[in-house]
Design a protein that fits this description.
The complex is a heterodimer. Chain A is mostly helical. Chain A is built from 16 helices and four strands. The longest helix of chain A is centred in the middle third of the chain and has 32 residues, at 107-138. In chain B, helix 5 (84-115) crosses helix 9, helix 5 packs antiparallel against helix 11 (221-249) and helix 6 packs across helix 9. The relative contact order of chain B is 0.12. Classes of the chains: A mainly alpha, B mainly alpha.
C-alpha cells in the first residue's frame, strides 16, 4: 500500500478513496432527492402531482405558480364561455379547470413581509453586534465573560417559552402582528450570534493597525471606522448572511406572534390549500421561490459555514 | 489588503472634529458600544423572562385579561411535576433527542471521515450535502408531509418498492409506531450535514505527523482510528452534540408541521405541550411555569455538558 503513495506514507490509497467517493456521492444524491422533488412538483399539474406511481417524467406546467399567486373560484362552463378571451397563460389554465381567477393570493404580501423583517432585523443585529463585538474584543469590559455568556444563553430558551411573555408584552405595547415587533424580536435573537461571530472576526484583526492609526492622530472612534471596519467586511458580510438566513427561515415565533398583516412566508406556505386538500404544486412553487435565495447564499458562504453554525467556536 | 490599510492610515490627517470627540475615554466608548445590545436583550429577553417567572406563580390566563389574578405560590410547579402528561412529553422529547443525536453523530462522523479521504470532487459533493441544513425546517418539513403521504408520496412509494409492503400501508404520519420515526428521519436528513461539517473540522485539525509517527510504529489502520482519529476528534463531536442537543430539546417547527403532536399525543414533545397549554388552552400561568422548568433543565444540562467538554479538551 505504501508503495503506491510515494509522496506521503499516510495518504489514503486510491482504492479507499474510490470507495469513500462512491459512498459520499451516494449519500449526497439520496439526500438531495427531496429537494429535487420539491422543484419537480412545482412544475406539475395537480393531477400529475398526486398520480400513482409518482411521476418522474411529466409534461411541465406552471399551473402551480399560477395557483400560488392567485385565488380562484369555481364557475359554470356557461359563465366561463360568456367571458372574453383569456388574458394570459394562467387565466387559460385556470379556465380549463372550470374556474376563474378571483384575485391575487396572500403569497406576495407574505413574501414581502419576510423580506422586510429579515433584512430589517439583520441590519439591526449586525449594527449592534459589530459595536458590541468591537467593545468586547478591544476593551477590558468588567465581567466580559459573564456578559458574553449571558448574550449566548438568551438563545437557549425554547422559542415557545419566550413567545408567551413576548405575546403579552406586544399586546400591551400594540406590537402584536407588526413588522416592527418581529424585527425587534429577531434582532434580539440574532444579536447573540452576531456578537459571538464578529468578536471572533475582529479578534483576528491585529490591534497594531488601530494603534498605528491612533499614533497618526486618529481618535479611537475614527480608527474603528477607518481601519477596523474595512478589515472586518468579510466577517460582517458572513455574519449578516447567517442572521438573514435565521430570520428568513424562522417559524415558531412567526407562527405564534403573527397572524395577518405581518405574517411571514414560513407560517403561510403550509396553509396554501386548493379544492379538496393541500394544493401540492402551489406549495412546492412557494417553497421553491422561498428556498432559492438561501441556496445562493449557502454557496456564497461555503467557507464561513462552519464558523457560523458553531457561533464562532470552530474556526478551522 | 495590508498595504492598502497602511496607505489609508498614512494618508489620513487628523480632523478638527477629532479633537472634540477625543474626550470620550476608552472605557466610555466600550460601554457606548456594548450597552445598546445589552439594553435590547434586557427588554426583549430578560424582562419577559422575569414576567414569565412572575406569571408562573399565578393563575393568569391570557385570553381573560380582565379577570382577577390570584397568586398560587408554587402550586403550578407542583402540579407540573405531578402531571402524567408532562412526564410523557418529556419522555417523548428524550426519545427524540436521543435517536436524532445518535443517528446524526454516527452518519455525520462517517461521512466526514469518508470526505477526509479527499477523493476527487469531494468539495463539490460536500457542498451538495450541506444544502438541507440551511433551509427552513418549517417550509421543508411541511413538504415532507407530501413525501410521506401513503401511496402518492415519494417516500412511501420508495419504501413499498424496496420492501414489497403495499403502498397504502406505509402510513408514516398516522401510524402510532411510525410517526416518531417519521420526525426522526426528517431531522436526521436535515441536520446530519451539521454534525458532518463540525466533525470534518475536527478530523482536519489532526496534524499529519501523528499519523506518520503511527505508521513508522506500524500501528494498524484500526488502531490508528481508535487511538488517534477518534480521541482527537472527540471535542468536536461533543461540540456538535451539544449544539444539536440544545436545538432538538427545543424542537418545535418540524413536529408542529409534520404531525402537530399526533397521532393522539405520540409525538407530543415538550414544545408542543407548551404551545397547546399556552396558546390553545390559554393556561398562561401554568405554561409559564413549565417554560421556566424547561429553561432551567436546558441550561443546567448544557452547563454540566460544557464542563465535561472542557475536561475532554484539556486532556
Amino acid at each position: 500500500m505504501s508503495l503506491t503513495t510515494a509522496h506521503s506514507v499516510v495518504a489514503p490509497s486510491t482504492n479507499s478513496k474510490r470507495i469513500a467517493g462512491v459512498l459520499v456521492v451516494g449519500y449526497a444524491l439520496i439526500s438531495i432527492v427531496p429537494l429535487l422533488w420539491i422543484f419537480a412538483t412545482s412544475f406539475k399539474t395537480p393531477p400529475d402531482s398526486i398520480a400513482y406511481p409518482p411521476k418522474i417524467v411529466f409534461q411541465p406546467s406552471i399551473e402551480g405558480y399560477c395557483n400560488l399567486f392567485t385565488t380562484r373560484t369555481r364557475q359554470t362552463p356557461e359563465y366561463i364561455n360568456s367571458l372574453g378571451p383569456a388574458t394570459g397563460f394562467c387565466d387559460e389554465t385556470v379556465r380549463k379547470r372550470n374556474m376563474v381567477i378571483a384575485g391575487p393570493s396572500n403569497f406576495l404580501p407574505r413574501f414581502v413581509n419576510s423580506l422586510i423583517i429579515a433584512f430589517g432585523s439583520t441590519f439591526c443585529a449586525v449594527f449592534l453586534g459589530t459595536l458590541s463585538a468591537y467593545g468586547f474584543s478591544r476593551f477590558k469590559v468588567p465581567l466580559a465573560d459573564d456578559l458574553l455568556f449571558f448574550i449566548l444563553s438568551t438563545r437557549m430558551m425554547p422559542p415557545i417559552a419566550v413567545a408567551i411573555p413576548i405575546y403579552l408584552m406586544y399586546r400591551e405595547l400594540g406590537l402584536s402582528d407588526t413588522a416592527l415587533g418581529m424585527i425587534l424580536l429577531y434582532t434580539a435573537v440574532n444579536v447573540s450570534l452576531a456578537v459571538w461571530l464578529l468578536k471572533g472576526f475582529i479578534d483576528e484583526i491585529p490591534r497594531e493597525y488601530e494603534e498605528a492609526a491612533m499614533i497618526d492622530g486618529y481618535t479611537r472612534l475614527q480608527a474603528f471606522w477607518r481601519t477596523v471596519l474595512p478589515q472586518a467586511t468579510t466577517g460582517i458580510a458572513a455574519t449578516a448572511i447567517f442572521c438573514l438566513i435565521f430570520a428568513w427561515n424562522e417559524y415558531a415565533f412567526a407562527a405564534l406572534l403573527t397572524s395577518g398583516t405581518a405574517q411571514t412566508a414560513p407560517p403561510f406556505i403550509p396553509t396554501i390549500i386548493g379544492e379538496g386538500g393541500q394544493d401540492w404544486p402551489a406549495v412546492a412553487a412557494g417553497t421553491t421561490i422561498f428556498l432559492v435565495p438561501i441556496l445562493v447564499f449557502t454557496i456564497l458562504l461555503r467557507k464561513q459555514l462552519l464558523r457560523g453554525i458553531t457561533f464562532g467556536a470552530v474556526r478551522k | 489588503m495590508l498595504n492598502r490599510t497602511a496607505d489609508n492610515v498614512a494618508r489620513a490627517t487628523p480632523e478638527p472634529l477629532a479633537k472634540r470627540i477625543r474626550g470620550i475615554s476608552d472605557k466610555g466608548l466600550a460601554w457606548l458600544f456594548i450597552s445598546p445590545t445589552i439594553l435590547l436583550l434586557l427588554a426583549i429577553n430578560i424582562f419577559p423572562l422575569f414576567w414569565a417567572i412572575y406569571l408562573s406563580f399565578t393563575n393568569y390566563r391570557a385570553n381573560r385579561p380582565n379577570e382577577v389574578v390570584k397568586n398560587l405560590g408554587l402550586s403550578n410547579y407542583r402540579r407540573i411535576l405531578g402531571d402524567q402528561d408532562i412526564w410523557i412529553a418529556m419522555q417523548t422529547t428524550a426519545h427524540f433527542v436521543f435517536w436524532t443525536i445518535l443517528l446524526q453523530t454516527v452518519i455525520g462522523f462517517t461521512l466526514a471521515w469518508l470526505i477526509d479521504r479527499k477523493f476527487r470532487g469531494h468539495a463539490f459533493w460536500t457542498t451538495i450535502i450541506l444544502v438541507p441544513m440551511m433551509l427552513s425546517p418549517a417550509v421543508v418539513g411541511n413538504f415532507w408531509r407530501f413525501l410521506y403521504e401513503p401511496q402518492i408520496g415519494l417516500f412511501a412509494y420508495a419504501v413499498s418498492f424496496l420492501s414489497g409492503i403495499p403502498p397504502t400501508n406505509v402510513q408514516m404520519l398516522s401510524n402510532v409506531e411510525l410517526a416518531p420515526w417519521a420526525i426522526i428521519i426528517v431531522d436526521t436528513w436535515m441536520w446530519t450535514p451539521y454534525v458532518m461539517l463540525i466533525c470534518l473540522a475536527g478530523l482536519r485539525s489532526i496534524p499529519e505527523y501523528i499519523y506518520e509517527a503511527a505508521e513508522v510504529d506500524r500501528a494498524s489502520n484500526w488502531r490508528q482510528f481508535w487511538s488517534i482519529t477518534l480521541p482527537m476528534a472527540l471535542p468536536f463531536i461533543m461540540l456538535a452534540v451539544l449544539f444539536r442537543g440544545i436545538e432538538n430539546f427545543k424542537m418545535f417547527d418540524m413536529v408542529n408541521l409534520l404531525t402537530g403532536g399526533g397521532p393522539g399525543s405520540t409525538t407530543e414533545v415538550a414544545s408542543i405541550t407548551l404551545k397547546r397549554q399556552a396558546f390553545e388552552s390559554w393556561r398562561t400561568g401554568y405554561s409559564s411555569a413549565f417554560a421556566i422548568i424547561l429553561f432551567v433543565a436546558v441550561f443546567g444540562l448544557a452547563n454540566i455538558y460544557v464542563k465535561a467538554l472542557n475536561k475532554v479538551k484539556q486532556r
